[in-house]
Amino acid sequence: MKNSLSCLIGLCALILNAAVANAADGSEVAISDYGWLSLLPAIVAVILAIATRQVIVALVGAIFAGALPLADWQPFTAAVRTVDTYIVGALVPVDGSAADPFYMQVILMTFFLGGLVGVLVRSGGAAGLIQPLLKFATTRERGQVLTAATGFLIFFDDYANTILVGGTMRPLTDRLKISREKLAFLVDATAAPIAGLAIVSTWVGVEIGYIGEGCKEAGLNPDSAYAIFLATLPYRFYPLYLIAFVFLIGWTGRDFGPMREAEARARDIEEAPAATTDPSVEHNANEARPNIWNAAVPLAVLLISLTAGMIWAGTSSIAAENIDSSFEAKPVEYTVQNILDRSDSTRMLLLASAAASAIAVLMGVATRSTSLAELVAGWLTGVKSMVEAVTVLILAWAIATICDADHLGTATYLSGLATGIVSPAMLPAIAFVLAAVVALCIGSSWTTMALLIPSLMAIAADLNGGVPEPFSAVQLGTVGAVLAGAIFGDHCSPISDTTVLSSAASGCDHLRHVITQAPYAVTVAVISLVCGYVPSGFGVSPWLLLPIGFATIFLTIRVFGRKSV
C-alpha cells in the first residue's frame, strides 16, 4: 500500500513539476491544455482517502489541488479560492449571476428527509413497520427472507435501514441459528441498493444532484435529471441482481464460500450468541412503543404529495409552453416523459419532504407516542445525521465546478482520450468497473458518483458524435453503471460507513462481515457485467437482460450453493 501511494504521489509531483516548468518558460496554459492536470483533483481525492480514511479531508485536499493550477501555482491564492470561490460557489454564484435554487433545494430536502427518519424512530413508527412481520419467521429460510424483506420497509434511508433492521432482527436470527455474518450480509445488501433504487429516499437528491452536474457537462438540460434517474432504473443491474440474489439465498437456504462455513458454525452452536453491548445499536428502553401508523401516514403523504406535485408542475409547465409558443409550432404532448422533464422535481421533493416531516410530528403528538419535545429532538437528531452527507455533497459539487469545461476541463480531456479508443458499446462496462475500483478505495459510493458521473456522461455524449442524447442506451447504461458500481465497490470496502454500520448493528465482527460478503458481491458483479452492462452497451434491452441475469443467479446458487446442514 505504501509503495503504491509513493508511486502515485511521485506521479503527481512529476506532473506538477512539468506544469511549473512550462509556466517558467513563458508558455501559456489554456483551459483545454491542462492535460493530465485535469485529473489532479480525482487523483488527490483517492490518495488522501486511502491515506487518511477521511472523505471530507480528501475532498478538501482535492479542491485545493485543483485550485493550484487555476491560481498559477500560488498556494495562498489557491487556499483562498478553495473557500471563497469554489466551496461558496457550490451554493451561490460568486460571479454576480442569478442564483440557482437547485443546490439549496437538494440540501434542504436532504435535511428534511433526515429529520423525517429521526421522527419515525423516536415515535415508534419505524419499529412499527417491522414488528407485525416477526410472527411469520418460523424457519431459517423464512427468517432470512423476512430479514431481507424488512429492508423494503425502511427504503427511505440506508443508515436507518441498517441500524433498524439489524437491531430488530438480531434476536430472531439468533433464535433461528442464522449466523451474524449472514445477518450482516442481509442487512448490508438491502440497505444501499434499495435506498439507491427508491424513487423517494435520502439518496434521491444526491443522485439527482450528480446527474444534474453530468447533464451540464454533457450539454443536456439539468431539469431532465430526475427523468434520467428514473430511466436508469432498469440499468442498475448490480443492485437489482443483488436483491434477487439475497432472496434466493434465503429462500433456498443454500450458501457457498466463507458464508457457508459461518452458517455451519452457527448451526452447531447450542445456545444463541450473546447480544452485543454496543450502545449504538441496542434499543432504547425509553423509546415509544411501535406504532405502524406513525410511519405509514407520513410516508403516504411523502409519496402522494410528491407524485401530485410533479404532475401539477409538469402539466402546468407544458400548458404555459403551449400558450407561449407560436401557432405554427407543434404543441408539447402530455406524455409521462415530458411531464417528468418539466416537473421541477427538486422543488417538489423539498415540499413533499417538508410536509412529511410535519405530518410525522403531528402523528406522534396525535397518537401520544411521546412528547412534542422528544419528537422535535428526534427531528433534530435526524437532521444532524445528514450533516456529513450534505458536507460531502457540497465539496463534491465544488470539485465538479473545478473540473468543468470552464476550469480544468476534465471531461474534455477524458473525452479526447476516449474518442477513438473506447468503444461506445463498452463504456457502460468500463464505467461499472471504474466506479467499483474507486468506491473500493475510498469507501464512499456518493463520492464515487460525484467524481465519475459528470465526466462519464460527457464522454458518453461525445462518443455519440457530440449529440447530447439523454435517453440513449449508452448514456443511460453509463449512468446506471456508475450508480451501481459505486454500490458494489462500497460493499467490498472495509472502510465503507454502511459496511461498518452493518457489522455493528448485526453484532458481527467487522472483518468477518467483509470476508463473507465479498464473494457474494463479486459473484453478482460478474453476472452484472456478463449479463448486463456488456450486452446493454450493444443495444440489448435491459428488460430482456434482467430475467436472463435472474436466471443466471438462480443457476449459480443451485450449482455452487449447499445447505449448511
Automatic annotation (TrEMBL):
Compartments where located: Cell membrane
User: Any signal peptide, and if so, which residues?
Assistant: 1-23
Q: Mind telling me which Pfam families this protein's record contains? A: Na_H_antiporter
Q: Transmembrane: is it a keyword of this entry? A: yes
Chief localization: membrane
Listed transmembrane segments: 33-50, 55-71, 102-121, 183-206, 226-251, 292-313, 348-367, 379-400, 420-442, 520-538, 544-561
User: Which InterPro entries does the entry mention?
Assistant: Na/H_Antiport_NhaC-like_C (IPR018461)
Q: Which GO terms describe its cellular component?
A: plasma membrane
Keywords attached to this entry: Cell membrane, Membrane, Signal, Transmembrane, Transmembrane helix
> What is the membrane topology noted in the UniProt record heading this document?
Multi-pass membrane protein
Start and end residues of each Na+/H+ antiporter NhaC-like C-terminal domain: 200-530
Protein name (database record) = Malate-2H(+)/Na(+)-lactate antiporter
Q: Which organism is it from?
A: Stratiformator vulcanicus
